[in-house]
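hiii, so i know i said id send this last week but things got crazy w the move. better late than never?? heres the sequnce for the chain we talked about at the cafe, plus the structure i predicted for it. fair warning i was half asleep when i ran it
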Amino acid sequence: MNQFCKNITLNVLPEEKPNYISTEYWSASKGMGVLCGYPNNTGTFIVTAQNLVPSGVYTAWFVTDNGAYPSAPKNVIFTEDGYDPNRLIVNSKGQLQYYIAQLDYNPFEGIPTNDGKMPVRKIVLAFHQDNTTHGLKPGPHISHLSGEL
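okay and structure toks below
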């Protein structure tokens, strides 16, 4: 397989939002991602976003037919303490300037799991009202932005 990159528009999921965030602000959220796969069985994921919850704790997820997986390398440690590798740093103005994940797999060929390789179907940015991350599982969250591959 040759190098392949795909631009992904991340759109707001308006179904659920925190009570303390206005519908107008929540609905104005948007993001852009670039997902790349390389011939050496690696990849990258880059994302930016605007109008997120100011200083909010977010994580990025790859959604497959077999559930959600962190948008991070497989060979890293997840501590479930708010500082997992797929945590997104959102500033006080609600901006995610960038997040770059160096992947140790090609996301278009699939995420290696115990059940085989699971192709990425969608990307989700999840907001965590409890101000922490939850390791290898999304934990309590609100899916804020999403983009189909």
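btw The two ends are 18 Å apart (CA to CA). thought thatd interest u
miss u guys!!
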